[in-house]
Amino acid sequence: MRTSWPTLMGQIGACTACDLCHGRTNVVPGEGDLHARLMLVGEGPGEQEDLQGRPFVGPAGQLLDRMLAAIGLTRAQVYIANIVKCRPPKNRVPTPEEAAACLPYLRAQVALVRPRVIALLGATAARAVLGDEVRITRDRGKWVERKGVFLLPTYHPAALLRDERKKRPAWEDFKALRDKLAQLDAGN
Ligand code: URA
Fold first, then answer.
1. Rounded mean pLDDT of the chain?
2. Which end of the chain lies in a sparser environment, N or C, as judged by fewer CB atoms within 10 Å?
3. Residue 155's domain spans which residues?
4. Distance 66 CA to ligand 1 centre (A)
């Protein structure tokens, strides 16, 4: 049976399934429209996110907000989550074990929100969801369909802050997200 939001949020808030729980100030479960057509999945909370208990509120999040605005969306119209819900020490990449321990929560979030389109932001998100063989530079911008849901790997906004050259392909990916949503709307 499908879980409910209060049950799921309670489980995430109390989770001790991996060692990341010991370092957290707040869990960062995710937020946004609980019926969003577009879900965005990042890697894991950074410093600001850990302090505030909200996803993508630091510098990468500000860029993400601008990219969403450029395709006509606000953060209130999408659902934003992460692969791991607790901040890894010094913002290191979550281990595959940590990602695996947390993945059932993301799956439950997807089952509740039932988005039509999911953007996987960066290699960690893309690999955790699509498999270890994903290479973000090679595979970004390529749609994958799973049970009627369209998934698009793209660069993580933090990568765009580090490397300007990634901005143009990421912008192409965001336009593809916009076009896919419009196409799905036109179809039903
Ligand atoms: N980076 C992420 O992957 N997730 C956040 O919530 C913030 C920064």
1. 97
2. N
3. 5-185
4. 15
CATH number at residue 34: 3.40.470.10
Distance between CA atoms of residues 162 and 76, nearest Å: 27
Break the chain down into helix, strand, coil percent, rounded to 5. 50, 15, 35
Query: Does the CB atom of residue 60 touch ligand 1 within 6 A?
Result: yes
Cα dihedral 95/98/99/102 (nearest 10): -170
Q: Rounded mean pLDDT of 81-88? A: 98
Query: pTM here?
Result: 0.97
CA 45 to ligand 1 centroid distance, Å: 5
Quick: pLDDT tens for 17-35: 999 999 999 999 999 999 9
Q: How many domains does the chain have?
A: 1
Q: Indicate if ligand 1 lies below 6 Å from the C-beta of 115.
A: no
In the reported structure, the alpha carbon of residue 82 is separated from the centroid of ligand 1 by a whole-number distance in angstroms of: 7
State mean pLDDT over 72-77: 98
